[in-house]
Amino acid sequence: FPSTHVPYIDLVGRRFNIGKIKDVHVVVVNVGGEIPNVVLGTQVLFDLLSIRGIIHFGSAGSVSDSLRLGDVAVPESVAFTGNWEWKSNASTRGELKFGDFNLPQKGVNSLGSADFQKVKLYTSGNPSQNLLWLPVDSNWLAVASELQGLKLQECVNEITETNCLENTPEIVFGGRGSSADIYLKNAAYGEFLANRFNATFVDTSSAAVALASLTNEVPYILFRAISNSVIQGTSGPNSHYLATANSVKVAVKFIELIGKPNWVFKY
Fold first, then answer.
1. Structural domain count, the chain
2. What pLDDT does 234 receive?
3. Residues 239, 67 contacting (CB under 8 angstroms)
4. Torsion angle in degrees (nearest 10) through CA of 140, 144, 146, 148
5. The CATH number of the domain where 170 resides is what?
6. Which residues pair with 235 in a beta bridge?
7. Is 108 a member of any domain?
């Protein structure tokens, strides 16, 4: 329900909707899908209000057999895997060797190789840290574990049971997310991320939310519902709709769990 006092604030091209969900005070905003926009929108939220925590939800692509269409991933950490040191074509020392993907067989590739770089985390009064994996708040993960077994939406029309997924979606705890400013559909690179980093899903925003939250020393949690399989190349209108519906359902239920008697933010 929107606030009767200040239902929204328009700032930096975004609408920050103020109200309650399950009797918990919340601010809901679409920060954008690209990493620069996500960072900017999230930081404005911190600057605007006294935020207790960030719940980031939306869709993602699976790079693991453990995540099927409609499932909601609740990872323990996420990495920004778009920060590369691209080496010369003479170097063979990079983690990602493009020649390994030559067809019909591996060989030399003029693209050379690339190493994945850590990101620098700045927090007030502390030395900066170089991190690859950005951890999700452990206390919030413990609360989220109570969502185990929550029934997710399997069909677009649940009454007639039509336009359904082939599997029964579940909440999947643990695993790792990979974020980059790339919308990934390439199966070979998806397999590389899974094998090299044990990533289970990919998206374009979670690492940005993680970095902003850790910088501001505020807990955060991620609920990323699977709309497509990068490796299998499967997706569809039903999976996109149901991924959105399931990520929202899990986020709302989590808000209910953490809400009483606490508030997500104070104003």
1. 1
2. 79
3. no
4. -160
5. 3.40.50.1580
6. 228
7. no
pLDDT tens per residue across span 114-167:
999 999 999 999 999 999 999 999 999 999 999 999 999 999 998 888 889 989
Please state the φ and ψ torsions of residue 9, each to the nearest 5 degrees. Answer: -130, 125
State how far the Cα of 33 lies from the Cα of 31, in Å rounded to an integer: 7
Would 2 be classed as within a structural domain? no
Residue 117: count other Cβ atoms within 10 Å of its Cβ: 14
Q: At what angle do helices 206-215 and 35-48 cross, to 10 degrees?
A: 30
- pLDDT computed for residue 48 by the predictor: 84
Token pair belonging to 206: 């979670």
- What was the pLDDT predicted at 267? 39
User: Considering the domain boundaries, does residue 257 fall inside one?
Assistant: yes
pLDDT average, residue stretch 210-218: 97
Tokens read off for 211: 């970095």
In a domain, 229, yes or no: yes
Tokens found for residue 49: 């209000």
The DSSP element (H or E) to which 200 belongs, if any, is strand 199-203
Instruction: Supply the pLDDT for residue 263.
Output: 45
**pLDDT at 81 (0 to 100):** 97
- Domain residues for the domain of 19 are 8-83+118-266
pLDDT in tens, 77-113: 999 999 999 987 766 677 899 999 999 999 888 888 9
Q: What are phi and psi of 59, to 5 degrees?
A: -100, 165
Please give the DSSP secondary-structure letter assigned to residue 5. S
Burial of residue 205 (CB within 10 Å: 0-12, 13-18, 19+) is buried
Distance separating alpha carbons of residues 239 and 156, to the nearest angstrom: 9
State the amino acid at position 12 in one-letter form.
Answer: V
